[in-house]
Write a structure and sequence with these properties.
The complex is a heterodimer of chains A (286) and B (443).
Chain A (H helix, E strand, L loop, with lengths): L1 H27 L6 H9 L13 H10 L12 H12 L9 E5 L20 H7 L15 H5 L5 E4 L4 E4 L9 H5 L5 E5 L6 E4 L7 H7 L9 H5 L5 E4 L2 E4 L9 H5 L5 E4 L18
Antiparallel strand pairs in A: 1-4, 2-3, 5-8, 6-7
Helix pairs in contact in A: 2-3, 2-4
Chain B lengths: L22 E3 L5 E5 L9 E2 L6 E2 L4 E4 L8 E2 L4 E10 L5 E9 L22 H10 L12 H5 L9 E5 L9 H8 L1 H15 L4 E6 L3 H11 L5 E6 L8 H9 L14 E5 H12 L6 E7 L7 E6 L4 H7 L7 E6 L6 E2 L13 E6 H4 L12 H5 L6 H10 L2 H6 L10 H5 L6 H20 L1
Parallel strand pairs in B: 1-14, 9-10, 9-12, 10-11, 13-17
Antiparallel strand pairs in B: 2-8, 3-5, 4-7, 5-6, 7-8, 13-14, 15-16, 15-17
The chains are: A alpha+beta (286), B alpha/beta (443).
Chain lengths: 286, 443
């Protein structure tokens, strides 16, 4: 009996002693952490995708609490709603950033872009692009090995078996930019989602001159500059044999889409053509 | 027991079909396309423009730094254009395209076959001249030769090692050079010895070339300080670090250069180029290229001008066989598959290997079974299975810890892997990224 008693008493005393020491140590080494960081973190999506440019949601929350001006901080995953909720906790204001979405700027489907070689190396776009220009005549286009799809944490991409190109699931895409970083060919771009998700972009990144570009891929931008000429808003520039549409200037008039001889300019989510068209457009070049 | 390097290595089937084929001088092509980046280091800067008349051996692109190399015109004629053309990897690279007219050599080049034994140039002049002649490592790595000859202050060199190993299966360019240009190589060796101020030179030759070993040993008796070292056949014995280990038993510490152990290594082809540059004033604009393969009707060794279209070499060797599955630039172990044969040969083209369909394809990739064969064969003592995994996962700090930068990319691991895993592909990816990180740290 006494053994049990001694055990209980000695352990109890030990425990109490340790508790007292720990109490003072905790007081001595106490780190003050702004409780608002926790609150802001709560309000964030907890995706830890890095789309904001910070290592994770907690780092982003810290940055929000610590910086006076949060206008250049944005959580693309949460969007305007999350940002205003988080800003409200801090009593700060945010201007809603325009929602963005990833677009794949390559239309080199198996049909448009004949294969000229065969690749049987490691299934990685980065490795393939370090070894050679690609299995088609276009050394700028999509390699089709799906590194972007692997990089996507939001199930917003898949490889289309038929075309061999990645497809963005618009509803899932949070514009975190992981696919943009993953693509060694810089094919994927984050663009403004646009009103009613309507947008127009040049679906090509080929910087070859017209003739070789066209030979390699029937849907290539041949830098003809027709789109540039027709665009009423100066939204289109042709540089390095490639047209680019500035999404801030583009008014979605769609003139360029009709003008492009290779159909390299894509429009998304527009209703079928009506006799009357509201707004002006961008274009593409040859 | 013959010497070889102490760690790892493999012995792939040798398949030296073109061995013993005399070096055939390829006719001057009608048009050459000379890339401005044919060497390791900064691309050269073209100094000719469209319409300029050039002679054989005339400087057409200037080196743009210490680690860079001059480029000389391989033909005489008119500069047709300077444009971006497809290179062997399918990317566009800048090249100088020259339409050939006749074959008029620069007057300063001595075209006689006569052997000039007496070395009048001083060590400094030799290094300078080697740089001016645009000589790069002709074993395939194309590292500018004058850089290796410039021993950094505080370091000393006591032995020159010549690489006559030709450990890559199929290739026979160096073998044939030793057989036909042995004397020139010997004088070249003495020039290099003078430049490096060393008394001793060792020429390492693998035992599968007994004729070359005998021939070179006979010749070496006429030249002071040169010895021939026969070596056991083992890949990658032609790697600098492996060759030094094999010949003189010194190991280079991780991340260091051969000069750390007092050795400089040059390829025998490079040595011949040095001889020609110093004694004959002939810059580097042609080289020996082996064209070979199991179904090639006439495996050959050609002396070809830089910029000659690959197609012309393949045609001269009997044309592209019907069952061709893959064309490789270089040897089967370190060479790269080409995406087109409509590309020029460069200073680094040691061979063109044509693989028939049945052996061209990589086998299906299976999961790693942890057999550790890759660890056993790695000549640098690394763990390729681990390096490839951490590279795939992007764990760069771990890759650096595991000394990924020591990898010499010999491909022994991928060659030996029973699960056909593309180990080297991933390690190269990791090396690229780790190298970038390390460089950004020192900036």
């Amino acid at each position: 009996m006494s053994v049990v008693l001694i055990t209980i008493i000695s352990l109890g005393v030990l425990g109490a002693l340790a508790a007292i020491i720990l109490y003072f140590v905790a007081q001595k080494f106490k780190v003050f952490e702004d409780p608002r960081i926790d609150q802001v973190e709560e309000a964030l999506p907890a995706a830890n995708c890095g789309g904001c440019g910070f290592p994770g949601c907690r780092a982003f929350a810290e940055a929000m609490v610590k910086s006076d001006d949060i206008s250049d901080l944005n959580c693309p995953v949460g969007g305007a709603e999350t940002m205003s909720a988080a800003a409200a906790i801090l009593g700060k204001e945010v201007s809603a950033a325009a929602p963005m979405v990833a677009v794949v700027r390559c239309n080199g489907t198996c049909e448009n872009r004949p294969r000229v070689t065969e690749y049987d190396g490691a299934t990685s776009c980065t490795i393939a692009s370090s070894l050679y220009g690609g299995d088609t005549g276009c050394s700028n286009g999509c390699l089709g090995l799906g590194e972007c799809v692997d990089a996507c944490d939001f199930n917003a991409m898949y490889m289309d078996e038929e075309t061999g190109l990645p497809v963005i699931k618009e509803d899932n895409c949070v514009s975190c930019g992981a696919c943009v970083d993953a693509c060694p060919k810089n094919i994927i771009e984050l663009r403004k989602k646009g009103p009613k998700s309507r947008r127009i972009f040049v679906s090509c990144v080929n910087t070859d001159k017209g003739a070789p570009a066209k030979k390699a891929c029937s849907a290539a931008c041949i830098a003809c500059k027709k789109c540039q000429k027709i665009c009423p808003f100066d939204a289109i520039t042709v540089e390095n044999n490639l047209a680019y549409i500035d999404y801030d200037k583009c008014k979605l008039c769609r003139k360029c889409v009709a003008e492009c001889p290779t159909n390299a300019i894509h429009m998304v989510n527009f209703p079928p053509p009506k006799p009357k068209v509201e707004k002006p457009v961008e274009e593409k070049a040859e | 027991m013959l010497k070889t390097f102490s760690l790892g290595g493999v012995h792939p089937a040798e398949n030296k079909f073109s061995a013993g084929q005399k070096i055939e001088i390829l006719p001057v092509p009608e048009q050459v396309s000379v890339p401005i980046a044919q060497h390791i280091g900064a691309p050269s800067e073209p100094i000719v423009k469209k319409g300029d008349e050039v002679k054989v051996g005339q400087l057409i692109a200037k080196s743009t730094g210490f680690v860079s190399a001059n480029i000389h015109s391989p033909v005489s004629g008119k500069v047709f254009k300077i444009d971006n053309v497809l290179d062997a990897s399918g990317y566009k690279k800048q090249a100088i395209i020259i339409k050939t007219e006749g074959d008029e050599w620069d007057e300063s080049i001595d075209r006689s076959e006569e052997l000039v034994k007496e070395i009048t140039a001083s060590p400094e002049e030799i290094v300078k001249k080697v740089g001016e002649a645009g000589i790069v490592g002709l074993g395939g790595a194309t590292f500018p030769a004058h850089v290796k000859l410039s021993v950094p202050p505080g370091k000393t060199c006591d032995v020159l090692i010549l690489n006559g190993v030709e450990c890559e299966p199929y290739l026979t360019a160096d073998h044939q050079l030793m057989m036909e240009k042995g004397d020139e190589i010997m004088v070249g060796t003495q020039i290099l010895m003078k430049a490096l101020k060393v008394e001793k030179a060792i020429i390492g030759i693998e035992n599968n070339k007994p004729d070359a070993i005998k021939h070179m040993t006979d010749l070496a008796s006429n030249y002071a300080g040169i010895t021939i070292q026969a070596l056991k056949v083992q890949y990658p014995q032609g790697g600098e670090k492996q060759l030094i280990d094999a010949c003189i038993g010194r190991q280079i510490p991780s991340g260091k250069l051969p000069i750390e152990v007092g050795a400089v290594v040059q390829n025998v082809g490079t040595t011949l180029a040095v001889y020609e540059a110093i004694q004959k004033n002939k810059p580097l604009f042609e080289r020996v290229v082996t064209v070979t393969g199991k179904s090639v009707s006439k495996p050959s060794n050609f002396m070809a001008r830089v910029g000659t279209p690959l197609n012309q070499l393949i045609d001269a060797a009997g044309g592209l066989p019907e069952d061709t599955g893959k064309v490789i630039g270089g040897g089967p172990m370190m060479g790269k598959a080409l995406s087109s044969t409509d590309v020029p040969i460069t200073k680094g083209s040691s061979g063109i290997l044509i693989m028939p369909n049945e052996i061209a394809k990589r086998a299906k990739v299976e999961p790693c079974i942890r057999c550790s064969k890759c660890v056993t064969v790695c000549p640098m003592g690394l763990s390729p299975y681990l390096l490839s995994t951490v590279s795939d996962k992007g764990i760069w700090d771990r890759a650096e810890e595991e000394k990924i930068m020591d990898c010499i990319e010999c491909g022994s691991c991928s060659f030996t892997c029973p699960a056909s895993r593309p180990l080297l592909d991933y390690i190269r990816l990791g090396k690229g990224n780790v190298g970038r990180i390390m460089r950004s740290r020192t900036k």
